[in-house]
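User: For my dataset I need records formatted as: sequence, then C-alpha cells, nothing else. Please produce one.
Assistant:
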Amino acid sequence: MGLPLMRQVLRVGIERVGWRTSAQELLMKRQASLLQHAPMLSTFTATKQANDACTTSGTTSSKEPQFSDTTSLFKGQSTGALLRSWAVFMACSQPWFVKHADSLLTVSKRVIGTQATMGIIKASFFKQFCAGETQQQVETVMEQLHTRGIGGILDYAAEDDVVPVAATPVAATKASRGAPPVPGSCGDQKVGVDVSDLKTTLTARSYPYASERACDAHVQSFLSAIRAAAMAPGQGFAVVKLSACGNPLLLERMSWAIKQGCETYRFAHVSLTEEEADDGHSEFRGGRAMVTAMRNRLHTLAEASAQDGVKLMIDAEQTYLQPAIDHLAQDMMRIFNRDPKKIRSRGLKGAVMFNTYQCYRKGTEERLTHDLETAKRDGYVLGVKLVRGAYLEMERARAQRMNYPDPIHDTLQDTHDEYARCTEMLLEAVAKGEAEVLLGTHNQQSIVLAMATMERLKLTSKSPVYFAQLLGMADHLTQALGAAGFQSYKYLPFGHVQQVVPYLLRRAHENASIMQGSKQDVVLIKTELKRRARAMLGRS
C-alpha cells in the first residue's frame, strides 16, 4: 500500500478517535431530546399517531398520499402487468423456489436451452425488476414513471458470481511489524474470501476483480448511466459500486488500516517498505498506485455527475469494506458537496455525492452523528442514502464462520428503531441545511413517520428529502408519494438479461426475506384485479 498511503488512511482513523468522544456526547444529548418524541419513535407501534399528526396539521405537499386507493395507484398499469407482478411475488414467497433458484436455472438451461431459459426470465423476473436492456427501453420506462410524478435512479446491474480468492500465509515477522494482514484476520474481523463464501455471496451485489482495465470498463458503464440520468426529466440520480472501481481486497486492507487507527495509535509511526505493505502479494504490487487509480475513477464519476447535474450515490457494501468506502466518499463530498459555482454546469443545487448507511448495522446512529459533525466542521453538505441493509445473511454467516462479533442488529425491531432514530436525526440536519437524504425503504410506517417529522420541522415536499423503492416492489408507496407531490423515485437496474441474472437471484432472495412487507403488494394487486374483473362483468 505504501507508507504515504498508509499514513493517510491511519490519519483518517486517528481523526475518528479524536471526534468519537464528541460524537458520542452529541448522540447522548440528541437521544435525550428525542425522548420528547418517544411515542412516535418507539417504532411502528405509533403509526396511527404519526398518521394523525399528518392529518390534523396538514401535509407538506399539495395532498396527502393515499397508500390504499388501488384505482389511482395502479392507473396506467395493464392487467397483464399486474398478473405478472402477482405471479412473481407468489413465486418469491415459496421458500423451496428461492432456495433452489440457481439450481433450477441450471437445470432449465440443460433441458430447454439457454436461449429459451433467458426468454422466460426476461418475460417474468427481468420485466418485473429491471428497466431494460437498451437505452431506448430504459428511457421509455423513465418517461412512463415521470408522467406519474416519479423519478428514476439508474443502476448498472450487470453482476458476476463471486470468484473466491485463496488465502496466502503471511510471514509472522511482517505481521508483527504491523503490516495489514492478507486474507486471515482484520482486528476482530477477518479479511479475504474463502470458498465457503461463494454460496452466500451469490445473493450480494459484487464485481469480482479481474484487472485495472476491467475497472476502467465499469467506469464507462457508470458514465453511461450518469449521461442517461442527465437527459431524463427532473432531478437525475445514478449509482456507483466502489468495488467495481478497484480491487475489493485492497478496500479490505484500507478498511483494516482505518479500523486499527480508530482503535489504537500503535501503527502510526511504523515504517513499511512497499514490499512489506504489499505483504508479498502480487495483486497488491504497486498498491499505492492502485488506490490512487481507484480514487481517480471515483473522482471522474463525481465530476461528470456534477457537470451534468446528477446526484451520485455510492452503494453500501460489506462491513469489512465499508470504512474505506466511507473514507473515499467523504473525500469526494469535501470536493463536490461544497461550492456549486465552481463545478456544476446545470444549476444543480445541494449535494452531488451521497454515501449509503445501513441501519441493520450496529452503531449506525453513532456513525451518522460523527459524519454530520465532520461535514459541519469541514464545511460541506452530507449526502445520505438511508437503507436497512442488503447483506444480512452473508454478514451473519461470515461472522459465525470466522468467529468475530456479529455486526448486525440482533432483532428486526432493533433495525426498525435504528432506522427511525437515524431518519429523525437526518431530517433535523436537512432543516438546518447540513444534509440531504434519500430514504430507501419499502416500509410504509417508516414513510409515514418521516412525513410527520417533516411536518414538525416545517420541511416541504420540495426540501432535499427523497423517497425511493426498487423497481417492481412497493409500487403503491412510490406511486402514492409521487401523486402527492413528494420527490419519489424508483431504483432502475438495467443491463443485458444474461448479465443481470445474479441481480435477479438476489431480488428473489430479498423478496423471500421481506415477504412480510411484500404481502401488502400482493393484497393490493389482488384487490385491484378483483375490482377490474367486477368492472368487466358490469358489477359494482
